[in-house]
Fold these 4 entries.
Entry 1:
Amino acid sequence: MTPFIKHSKLMLAVAVATAAFTGCKPKKAETVISGDAAQKVYVAPGKLDEVYLFASGGFSGQVAAYGIPSGRLLKVIPVFSQNPENGWGYTEETKAMLNTSHGFIPWDDAHHPQLSKTDGMDDGRWLFINGNNTPRIARINLATFKTEEILEVPNSGGNHSSPYCTENTEYVVAGTRFSVPIGNNTDVPITSYKENFRGALSFINVDQKEGNMNIAFQLLVPGVDYDLARSGKGVSHGWMFFSCYNSEQAHTLLEVNASQRDKDFIMAVNWKKAEEYVKQGKGKKMPATYYHNKYDEKTHSAKSTVEKEVLTLDTRELKDIVYFIPCPKSPHGADVSPDGENIVASGKLAAVIPVFSFKKLTDAIAKKTFDGEFDNVSVVKYEAALAGEVQKPGLGPLHTEFDDKGYAYTSMFVSSEIVKWKVDTREVVDRVPTYYSIGHLCVVGGDNKKPYGKYVIALNKITKDRYLPTGPELTQSAQLFDISGEKMNLLLDFPTIGEPHYAQACPAEVIMKNQKKIFELSKNEHPYAAKNEQETKVVRNGKRVDVWMTAIRSHLAPDNIEGIKQGDEVYFHVTNLEQDWDVPHGFAIKGAENTELLIMPGETQTIKWTPKSTGVFPFYCTDFCSALHQEMQGYARVSAANSTVALKYGVGDTAPKDQVAQK
């Protein structure tokens, strides 16, 4: 009996341990941070953090950027959820970003940020993030920290196993969490899971110049649940490794029914072989409706395109694309060492960590050292692919990342700790407690060919007794550990937004070199841009009124508008004339039902306002910009729907001027 089978019998002990670690406060927990820890995380005024940390916002649907080692929140980047702070998903320019085949979806569940790569190293260009609930992948431009593209993923029941970059960002790869019926007949009994449910692995091509995404092909794979994955690199370039669970193919009460077998699988995917089959014309086009939303930096506006088909490869027919490796039940992550030789994976309830060898795996495939098939996929014998096992690492290994000194760091959910072990000998060399119930962890550059190392960040699920209470729910938590020495040292607790499932971090200089400070006003191609105050105007077209407005320290133009009527649809198109870094302007008007605007230097953004009553309505700048910020305001007069008040507007001596602008 192999060790992982023995350890799978420990579920009762695991359950007891879970209660113990999540319900009890370790003795002297408050003394864990000691010595010069405070000095190590102190970033003096005027100094900058060493590292950017990008953490998923979980159920907030956003991404948060933090500075490390300070733990300071730098920015919340709106992605899948509407954000009234800056109008994301509310403005006329950004609404299209949240279009899907299910309609306008203003929320999602964001789990796994992934930095773009060049030669296996973070390159600072883009950050990808998954939408789990309504399957989507977003691309964030790290020059502007703005979401520029959201691509819906068809044939996916849930986009949790996503997005993972290949070594040179040839692809961003997404696997379905929930297998579902795919194809022409999707209205089938749930009990027909084994016969009719399939998974889909989407290989999304990324344009290397602009970053634009397109689905190159999908692999139709066995009907199980797919979890975290990692791309091969170095010796394993051209492969991808997914963790899989529910090999029982259960469809109800998975907590019990998906724990019947002693093993689940790691799926090894030879995407280079898949590319060959595509070139040979062996792919089949399948009807599929999905949205592709892009934000254009020149027009400062988004557009949606509806796609109608996807190219598929069926692994039941093309059997040398994917292979299964047995793994302790319910694995959560499959992680690849910096040299690409070792694949680390284990079950969430296990007490051992298998380390598989890429060389042994490919040798076993070549020699057909298989242990039968699962849904027409060859299962490589466990021992044939195994390099060795990390013995007694703790309970509940979840996720592993690597430093630059030959060590691996594994989060242990059940025993609530991080375990450090040597990759070549698989010997445990250190362990530290986390507070509490750690999920993922993040080593700076931990999935790179050459990790940066120095820090590991724990992303914890429970924070009782760590922060001031805030009712039934406490803030989410991250903890920073120094890993530069032989022993891991806790430096800092800091709160996070949403639930930080996973994070990626890289040296700040990698991101900073690409930073965009302004949008050049001369290159603004927004159709309603007013590039100077002489271009401002107000135009009526039936019940629609368009306001070409400018903002500059410290006034809005026009700042007096009359002739708007009750029930009109008024569009304020506000252009920020500033060409100075960090001088955004805001715009809000009394009675607006949706949001404000936050307009970056050189940018144009639009808010729709439908006044429902007569009167004089103030509008103003919401973002402090100068000593006379309070004076940056104006008025819109609304008259009755049948009023004959002329449309008049202006600023200063011309407010309101008598000219009537009609279209």
Note: The domain at 529-662 is CATH 2.60.40.420 (Immunoglobulin-like).
Entry 2:
Amino acid sequence: MALSEQEQVRRDKLSRLREMGIDPYPAPLYPVNNTSTKIKQDYTEGKKVIIAGRLMSRRIQGSASFAELQDAEGRVQVYFNRDEICTGEDKSKYNDVYKKLLDIGDFVGIEGELFTTKVGEITVMVKDFTLLSKSLRPLPQPRIDEQGNVYDEFNDPELRYRQRYVDLVVNPKVKDTFVKRTQITTTIRDFYNEMGFLEVETPILQPIPGGASARPFMTHHNALDIPLYLRIANELYLKRLIVGGFDGVYEFAKDFRNEGMDRTHNPEFTVMEMYAAYKDYDWMMDTTEKLLEKVALKLHGTTEVPFGENVINYKAPYKRIGILDAIKEHTGYDLYQKSEDEIREAAKALGLEVDETMGTGKLIDEIFGEKCEHLYIQPTFIIDYPVEMSPLTKKHRSKEGLTERFELMVNGKELANAYTELNDPIDQRERFEDQLKLSEKGDDEAMFIDQDFLRALEYGMPPTSGIGIGIDRLAMFMTNNQSIQEVLFFPQMKPEKKALELNDNEKAIYEILKKEPSIELGALKTASGLSNKGWDKGIKGLTKLGVAKVTKDDAGLTVTLEK
């Protein structure tokens, strides 16, 4: 492993510390009794404190030094004075260990007393310190000039998402996002717990990927010698619990869908699903409004929450409009009780790409998604979906061909999906069979038939309403983040490109190619300054690694940089 100059220097310091008998990674408990926040809130002059955290900055001025220590709650100023730390003749702990062998990023424990500087900043006078963990890689260090311009920020998304541990250390706003995410889930739990509902857990590995229309991830269980799927939804298991006698259950579930990735979709995502017996979708809309209003107030103290250029108001009640009414309003096409062919022709007339594998449900979904969805910025319940779009939903009590389903749209995106649940086992079997026909037509997102779930329904499920809320998307909306990657600690990423390990001959040629990616072979050889033997080894090595390619044409031999 090739080390940078700074990394090598830090490893040399590590060795020196060990030679001095200092363990750079000690095992014993360190008796922390204060935090940066507590120190500032409960300040008392001369109070003795023990704190720990990362050394994030320091200004050494001979025998004294001001520094900043960062713990889980923020930063606090600390003051290192040689004579306070080294009360005897031996000053090596300050002169050698602190000044020469500690680095920005090291974890240190500090015992000290509180005082206030002449400019009024609460500070810890260090009486003793302990190295708790030596940092071998330098942290990015943003700099701010006199005009307030920031340089060397750690803001490249690729690096930030891959190295979230660094992102959290150097970008305080990132940590605040994830604190708010936890507050969201805690508020939802409190809301449902107060209603007497039970938080449960259901299987992630499932024999049938049911509960939604999506492409699943597949795996194999060796001991049972059967295929299994990572769940695309937990709906059918939660309904089994309603059959079993629970009146209200909910689960924060990790779901997995083997589909595309973009700024609002990740293949692994978190959803909260809740099911309540003896309720319908009207009750669920009322309850959802109250829940989101409570979440907004908990996080922001107001129901008005900024998101990009918009301000979303989560104050109940929310607008309600049928999906077919929305399509008619925004496209002029009335699709109620129209045939599949008529709907397909309407989609084509609207300029949408459709094919023969798409049934009525997918066609309507495509029309709404492309022509209507983005127009609903404020929270809006899109209700009464066609039967073909809702294989797990009870038919509408008064509107032929529709179901009692809603999707909650916020800022032009779906935030929640809910139904009056279908509890007629015969109707449910027919709906599953219709999904099977779609699968046979080529729809790889059509639902499987879950025979055990049908058996559960045959034992009887009470009237029930259920909902699924996308927690990642809710976190985006509530923290004003435009990308789902910003609210996931470790979003899915493409494999990291392996760093090139080149010898000196290869490096000499590679550096020239970086500046001139396509160059005549003779000119490249001359520019490299290598001997014939060094040149041969270098160019062969680069071509073998796939870094460079040599091609021949009428003009001669040309070397091209490949990666």
Note: The first helix runs from residue 5 to 19.
Entry 3:
Amino acid sequence: MPSYLHTFAYAHKKSPTMRSAATLFLILSSAALFGCSSTPQPAGTPVKPQKIAPNTSTTKNPNDQIEALLEAEFTLQREGPSKAFQPFYQLVKKTRDEHLAERLMQISAASQINMNIEKSTDLLISIDPFNEQAYALKLQMLLQSHRPDEATTLLSSIIDKDVSVHFLPLYIDKNIRNTDLINTVTRTLAQLPNSYHNNLSVKASDARVQFSAGDYKTTTQTTKALLANKKTTDTEPLYLLLAYSQDQLGNQKSAISTLEKGLSHFPQSTRLLTPLLEFLVHSGEIKKAVESYQNTALTHSDHTQASITFSNLLIATGHPKTALATLRALPENKYGLENQVGYLIATALSDMGEKAQAIKEMKAVSGVLNTHATSQIALWLYDEHRENEINSMVLSRTHREHIPEVVTSICRLHEEKQHNDLSLALLNDALTAYPHSDALRYRKALLEDSMGNWQNTIADLKHLLDKKPQDAQYLNALGYTLLTRTKNIDEAMHYIEEAYQQDPKDPAIIDSLGWGLFLQGKLTSASFYLKKAWNTLQDAEIGAHYGEVLWQQKAHNQAAYIWEKALKESPQNSLLLETIKRLSPSLLDNTIKDNQ
């Protein structure tokens, strides 16, 4: 849903929790102040029915108004907020009931229709000219729909009525990465007369805009003035703005001092602690960073999360021993973060050279990190020359739904390490346990061919085609295998032509078709399709085929050009190298000389 609706739904929250800020970006998560409910309503969520409230201007609603209200509520529940808006709107116009007007505004926000939002907020403002909730929603809608002139007029009106606009800087925080929106906010603020910028909420908004524009010097001046003003509220994000601006200006010591001061006012703030630790670590003040981490009065759950963030930073900057000590000192209750802690402990141990213990620790990691842990264990087992343990580890750790993805990843690792035998063994074991996995069988078919077991490749591909006879990928693979491994060119072309009919834009299929035509002696047609494949994808094997056809057509210079281009991208491709050695070996000599 549009972010202004999300902000509107988070009304009246005074102390929102904010995520940690990252270097170069101020990522401030906050809740806006106005709305009818403290729980945000996702897009498409029906508005809950409410008890019928009496009219504020009379003791009871007339019977016809009660009936109209009931009918509007029924429409809301049956047909949703878009359909219910109009009957509620007519009812509010008649009754001028403030409670119903606020209800109408909820419905308009749920409808996500700007016209409805504008009509409902205007109506509520006409009933209560000082309703901050209505002004907040309407202003945010104008900003979201990029109407800066109207937004400036409305913002001026809000300030003139002495209605608070402290929702505005928080709204900017939520949307700091939305460039188009921030540009609209910038234009809106720029059009305000100078006197309006004395408003503390406007000045706080100015600071956000200045930071977003990279004007760190002005941001520093603005935030310092705000922090010096005793009337300024919501100062925690201002310490972040000031610290990051100082850091960008090269004053990291000042940035550290600012965050330390902020923490003295907000001792449980992880969003101030995180950048402080980052600045300290990058300044080489590891001991001071550890002291700052240990001395912060965090809740137990926040302490665990801060430990994870801090340890990750320490590991990334080459301080695994300190990270390990930090993680080991955590209490037994890790608030559901056991796997994240275990992953980092294992990583720290590995970086300290204790691979065997790292593997043991990583094997205990599960949950959402299971797949990452499995891959990491496999790498470490290779480091320890224990690669024969990998396959059983993978199959024992991996959940059924993740088998194709994980096995494919580990097979790729085996093949990169020149252990095709282990890759094939893993695929065979996985297919024994999960015989219906087409993805694994297809990978096995390709691997068998690369190992010279093309008869197995053909058998696997025919098995797959029995299940999916129109699959272009399987048809092409079978056709190309027959084309290159057997003398059954006609049978091969039958599969390839069928694949081309299914997917005439796939460069691999076009290449197979062109190569098949070449083997049939149809050079002109072969050149046409191979050129088409090459223009679509400049792959080494396509280049090898296209160059050979050009060579046979006596276009030697053009063939050499294609091969040279393919060699630059894939200098180790075996088919390409074999083709050039066979037809123009001097080209390889020239390429070697050029690279020396």
Note: The two ends are 58 Å apart (CA to CA).
Entry 4:
Amino acid sequence: MMNFYLHNMSDTYAAANSMHVLQVDDRPLLDETVEFPDSRGPDSLTLTTTDRADSALDRLEGTAIDGIVAADNLPDRSGREFAEIVRERDSNVPVLLLTEPESVASDAISNGVTDVFRRDTAVARRDLLANRIRLLVEHHRSTELASRTRQQLTELAEQSSELLWVFSGDWTEIQFVNSAYETLYGRSVESLQTSPDEFMTAIHPTDQDRVIQSMQRVSAGESVELEFQITRPDGEQRWVRAKAQPIVEDGTVARIVGASRDITERKRCESEHIAEIDRPDAPVDAVPDLFYELDENGELARWNDALAAATGYTDADLGPMSLTALFAPSDRETVRQGIETAFSTGETSFEADLLTADGTTVPYEFTGGRITAADGSPLGVVGIGRDISARESRQQALEQQNKRLGEFASVVSHDLRNPLDVARGQLELAQIEHDSDHLDAVKRAHGRIGQLIDDLLTLAQNGETALDSEPVPLQTVVEQCWQTVETGDTTLELQTSTVVRADPSRLRQLFGNLIRNSVEHGQTPHTERQDDAGEQRATTSLSQSQRPAADLTLTVGELDDGFYVADDGVGIPAGERDTVFEGGYSLASGPGFGLRIVDEIVDTHGWSITVTESDAGGARFEITGVEFETA
């Protein structure tokens, strides 16, 4: 699948040097070929021109078209009617409509048009028209590539029965996880995607320090493999074996890829096995695995014939030998720590290479449990060792799979942004040559595309259960967020001094998104919705999007059981308030995930959120069910 993906990607970029555009216009403005000599992207546009809508529709049947530019007034039907028919046949192909000065752009967009361009501007600056078409096609290509990449990555990971995941190098972002997480941890994939540190809450307290230390080692560039216990939401405890591998770029750990699997059944069998063979009368020589019993000093006190057979030593040789002498020098510290863990926590699990009498090494996995006297004092450790040589091939396969996942993520991160970088470069050249509000709008559109790519590769950062809850002053959090959001001329009114119990980082993200929502959307009069492919429908002029609202007042105040964020902007229509927290809802040209993230943060803390009209007629978000911190 990986080779198939890379092959298709190569084909895509080989074809990206030229674009085939259908021009539907009885007064065509562009020649059959338009060159871009200084472009870092496609070299040219190849145009096929027809003066009638019906003939254009016929051409679409058997011709691969990258984009369409159509006049608003055609001899046989309007350009908007033509766009509607095109959209019924192809929901993605970009359609640029040449409008007359008196036309209303938003009406055209609602009819399935991707973008509009005034004819009088195009007549004077045909180069701008050509560039606009090129940018639309590049946006379309990057969106399709993002969609294919997401699907292929999911298909690749879902073929594995193991839990596969990709974290950022510092463990603060989960970049990918397959559905096996739900089976193993009993929590939803969405909860981990939105709160990357959620998995730590499931780890048994006795194992948390060891897991954290292992995570730090991976962030420092070391591969690790370890076993630990987790507790599912239903109270069931399970054992997990996880392996993590760092992906290093430019000397820095950029990502961490790994796999986890459920070993609960194996642990149960081992415990029963140990309990059985620990009986004084147990026939330990019949046990196929290595059996060992250590005294209170951590030295061999009893063993079975399998240990002698595996090492090549006789019982007489084993009697006086130090335990660590049976292991490769590089693993002796691991063995010592493993035995110390058994004495301190009651159980242990570690891997080490057994050193045989002839000097060869064999990889073994050891588990053990503490033996205690009636008064609770430790008497020693008993356990078994299992030859894991046969597992090496499976581990190598997993390592190769992890490597492919890492390479895949690297390719995605690099190549998804290539078309966007090309478009941004061309925009810089255009802005040097021409000062236009249209170019500013294109720049904002580029920002939106970048956000869409980021939302594909690194998901939101919240979850189902509140983490690290502590007293947090609302006034302090709001003031911190106010400094990090571009607020323009917006005025902040703080009408609260309350302290709530919450996760500080999640609460900052909640206020940051609500402030940004009010500032960016407070004066935006029309609603924009996005479908799954990122296409826009019913949008405002790009010149209005992502611009800080002027003369807007935002108020943060208290409720009896929570707080609210309100503004005096245009508000949210009553018919749309039930859908504002869905992914893809936006009142400007952003990706539309801001309020969805807010909703997930609220759920994380067990709160509730509603949206209504503020006293000034704007939007008011009320968060209730909040626990206040009392003095």
Note: The domain at 291-386 is CATH 3.30.450.20 (Beta-Lactamase).
